[in-house]
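User: You have something folded?
Assistant:
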Amino acid sequence: MRGHKLLTICDTGRAGCFPLQDDGVPVSSLPTSAVLRQSFLSPFVTSAPPVSPSLPCQVQWAGETLQLLPERAIWWPAGRVLFIADLHLGKAATYRALGQPVPGGTTLENLSRLDALIERHAPRRIVFLGDFLHAVQARSVLSTLQIWRDGHAHLDMTLVRGNHDSRAGDPPVSLRIDVVDEPWLIGPFACCHHPQAHPTHFVLAGHLHPTCKLYGRGRDSLRMPCFVSEAGQAILPAFGEFTGGWLVEPAPGRRFHGVGGAAVWALPVPGHAGQADQADQPADASMSSQGFAT
């Protein structure tokens, strides 16, 4: 993914930018969905905020229909699998252990969003594409994580080790998470943490925490999480609340799906501004890339 030159794909004169429509697009960079199982929720909060309708974007990869979710995850309906990348549980706790003044609550928010996805899609398995725990200090959240896991005892979970997992160590056996090395194959997909090529399977990976940048008139701009795909692989945005992002440069053959508010939508194909691939259409027909036309 690295080392590609920027391409000018809009008429604002800036390289590597996607244009906003004249009145802007109502997006927020970190959509949230705080729905917990009641048994887990009640000890921590008194009420949960309402959940906004979710508008995923449907794509065809490796001959399979997938949904790119605004919660920054992928749902594979045929396999009943949720793919999650870069959860980084306990990252805020790690910073606090190092003396940094970081507020708490991100672990509960991450688990809340996972609960909402489980309730909505009823998956058979969750595949974590690396960086499940952030560091050794993050193991302080394991008691909370155990409560959450016990509430989903029926659900299979697999962790593909990432670079942070090698430092934090594998989750304890009591969490009942199968831990594997990359690539781990399921159906037509090679589950990895690091972006890479695979000779026979379509790669789903994380690691980069990809973001893209949109520009409007004047000095208006917006940086947002995104899904990035190119020949043979796709990179998921970081699921974790307390994570940074890397601005991915446009390149020939590379596609971006922006995540904003409660929706995901295809950004223009470089050289074909305002047009998305026919295979990549929003699940709701009212959502399209027309707001990004130059």
In short: Confidence is low (pLDDT under 50) at residues 1-51, 273-294. The first helix runs from residue 38 to 41.
